């Protein structure tokens, strides 16, 4: 993302934002079922898993271990702060960390809502970059066509050097485009997996209920 001033964590949470957040979290399959957001996210592990589901290259899950001690919880959140949140242009302060590790009401929700907003912003920037790359590639093709016409008419341009330069530029553009497309693909694959798991779970629950009903 762009190197702007870091975004501050939201200070207040509206009820509609809270409802949207809970619905959004239900789209993900994490290692633990979320029963109490404040308590379940207090050690930072589920936060790391959530980031990994949305942005696989942003987090290394082995850096985060389940914890009951306040110190280990602080370590996990400080690691997220330095290695993940900064890359999304936001950072949580010590007060936020203390609220989270002590399972204070709305402590982690403020961070989750901020993360959600910054995630969508990041995804939109990736899409814009992809569109810009397509536009640049089209312009390069048009410029190449114009240059070839001029070269043919005036015979003042070394065609061989011009072609090599153009090819190098296209290769650079394609490499960059592939890199960004890989990001988008991983995000979409993870979202699709989460949706599929959720759907299969509902189908399984329906099937089990039908079996129980038949037995009775």
Topology of helices and strands:
Layout: H1 15-25, H2 37-40, H3 45-54, H4 70-83, H5 94-101, H6 107-154, H7 159-215
Helix pairs in contact: 6-7
Region (Disordered): 131-161
Protein name: Calponin-homology (CH) domain-containing protein
InterPro entries: CH_2, CH_dom, CH_dom_sf, Spermatogenesis_Ciliary_MAP
DSSP summary: helix tally = 7
CATH architecture of the largest domain: Orthogonal Bundle
Q: Specify the overall morphology.
A: globular
C-alpha Rg, in Å? 24 Å
The average pLDDT is 82
| CATH level 3 topology of the largest domain | Actin-binding Protein, T-fimbrin, domain 1
Sum this structure up briefly:
The chain is 70% helix and 0% strand. The chain is mostly helical.
Protein model, in words:
This protein is mainly α and about 220 residues long. It has two domains: about 15-115, Actin-binding Protein, T-fimbrin, domain 1, CATH 1.10.418.10; about 120-215. The protein has seven helices and no strands. Helix 6 (about 105-155) packs antiparallel against helix 7 (about 160-215). This is Calponin-homology (CH) domain-containing protein.
């Amino acid at each position: 993302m762009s190197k702007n001033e870091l975004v501050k964590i939201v200070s207040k949470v509206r009820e509609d934002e809270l409802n949207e957040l809970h619905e959004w979290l239900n789209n993900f399959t994490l290692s633990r079922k979320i029963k109490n957001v404040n308590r379940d996210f207090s050690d930072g592990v589920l936060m790391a898993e959530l980031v990994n589901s949305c942005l696989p290259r942003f987090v290394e899950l082995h850096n985060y271990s389940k914890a009951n001690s306040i110190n280990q919880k602080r370590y996990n959140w400080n690691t997220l702060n330095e290695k993940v949140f900064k890359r999304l242009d936001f950072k949580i302060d010590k007060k936020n960390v203390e609220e989270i590790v002590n399972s204070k009401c709305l402590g982690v929700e403020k961070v989750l809502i901020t993360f959600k907003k910054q995630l969508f912003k990041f995804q939109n920037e990736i899409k814009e970059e992809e569109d810009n790359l397509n536009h640049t590639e089209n312009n390069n093709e048009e410029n190449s066509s114009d240059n070839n016409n001029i070269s043919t008419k005036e015979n003042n341009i070394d065609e061989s050097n011009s072609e090599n330069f153009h090819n190098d530029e296209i290769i650079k553009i394609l490499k960059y485009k592939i890199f960004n497309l890989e990001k988008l693909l991983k995000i979409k694959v993870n979202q699709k997996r989460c949706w599929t798991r959720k759907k299969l779970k509902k189908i399984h629950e329906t099937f089990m209920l039908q079996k129980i009903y038949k037995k009775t």
